[in-house]
Design brief:
Component of the cytoplasmic LSM1-LSM7 complex which is involved in mRNA degradation. Keywords: Cytoplasm, mRNA processing, Ribonucleoprotein, RNA-binding. By secondary structure, the protein is an alpha+beta fold. The chain is flat.
């Protein structure tokens, strides 16, 4: 980000074009790819995209190719340090081996979040997700 002009809009992405980026989406998916383009809504185009899943001390990758991401689904966007990219302290396994564990982790997290939301509703007066007045 060598630009001297501070941006608070999608214009701040101009220095990220043609660089390898990590994108985390609202649904929890983690994508890595080269940012090729973006627009005023922060919609992103990633090339040579790879999706990664993790479980404990292992990870798996699945090649996704060209990926168009709607800007409202981006939670995090960060540049990958190419010097440290290959120094992953995790063991890589096949996608098919890790996928069932990943789905179980997602289900466990959903159950945990639901029970936590119920406790917050009953004991602390928080509203329920998707309830009245929840605009999202």
């Amino acid at each position: 980000m060598d630009s001297l002009i501070p941006f608070t809009t999608s214009g701040s992405l101009v220095d990220c074009v043609d660089r390898k980026m990590l994108v985390i989406l609202r649904d929890g998916r983690k994508l890595q790819g080269v940012l090729r383009s973006y627009d005023q809504f922060a919609n992103l185009v990633l090339e040579d995209t790879v999706e990664r899943i993790y479980h404990q001390d292992v990870f798996a990758e699945l090649k996704r190719g060209l990926f168009l991401i709607r800007g409202e689904n981006v939670v995090l966007l960060g540049e990958i340090d190419l010097d440290q990219e290959d120094d992953v302290p995790l063991k890589q396994v096949d996608w098919e081996v890790l996928e069932p564990y990943h789905f179980k982790d997602i289900a466990d997290k959903k159950t945990h979040d639901e029970s936590k939301a119920q406790i917050l509703y009953e004991q602390r007066g928080f509203c329920k997700e998707g309830g009245e007045g929840d605009g999202y």
